[in-house]
Recover the amino acids of this structure.
């Protein structure tokens, strides 16, 4: 069961990173969001979709 959860988190993180790259944010903000998503996979992804996507 843990493997399925891990793959799900990986897929959602990849989707979040792609969304960051496609966004109209400046390069610095994109880099910070990608680093946050990669260092804190679950928290970073949730924060991006709740806070970062709106800005």
């Amino acid at each position: 069961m843990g493997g399925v959860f891990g793959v799900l988190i990986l897929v959602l993180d990849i989707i979040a990173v792609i969304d960051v790259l496609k966004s109209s944010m400046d390069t610095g903000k994109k880099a910070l969001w990608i680093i946050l998503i990669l260092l804190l996979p679950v928290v970073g992804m949730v924060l991006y979709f709740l806070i970062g996507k709106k800005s």
Remarks:
- The chain has one domain: 2-52.
- Residues 3 and 9 are 10 Å apart (CA to CA).
- The chain has a mean pLDDT of 92.
